[in-house]
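User: I'm putting together notes for a lab meeting next week and I want to include a structural view of one of the chains we've been expressing. I don't have a solved structure, so I'd like a prediction I can at least talk through. The sequence is below, exactly as it appears in our construct file.
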Amino acid sequence: MTSFTVNGQPVHYRLDPRTPLLWALRDASNLTGTKYGCGMGQCGACTVHIDGLARRACQVPIGTIEGAFVTTIEGLSRDRGHPVQQAWVAEAVPQCGFCQPGMIMAAAALLERNANPSDADIDAAITNLCRCGTYPRIRRAIAHAGRVIRGEPLAAAPPPGIDPADAAAAVPALSPPPKLSDR
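Assistant: Thanks for the context. Below is the predicted structure for the 183-residue chain, given as structure tokens.
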């Protein structure tokens, strides 16, 4: 049995110690925010924090992290209020969204160590791949989150927990498109 802490909760996995952390999180703990991308540790979709460091969960056998502290995207902030998550929204980073949990985890680990990263620091720390190519927005969001961490207020991001019904009520109804005969 392998034991460590996930998102502040002690867990005991009765899995083969060679099981990749990715599958323990997704299959045994139902923490599906950690994504399977390439399975080779290259894309970064499975990035989590292990003892505060960004690591590719597909490459970490659970038997090697006995007693460690693991944080997934679900544990980064229960209300999506972490500065990186808020900056991601403010800078409209997500497109398809698949890589975003791993990207956010990598950015949060970087900013924990360096709240004022240079472009070179970001390039060195964020090696995750984004198939949609949102890299300019990702860089802006990381810089934005760094400013928030350093004390600047984040004015552009909406508060977490907006009820979708409330958001939909604020959008005016669209009129139907004109008929072809009316054009």
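A couple of points you could mention at the meeting. The two ends are 70 Å apart (CA to CA). The chain is about 35% helix and 10% strand.

User: Perfect, that's what I needed.
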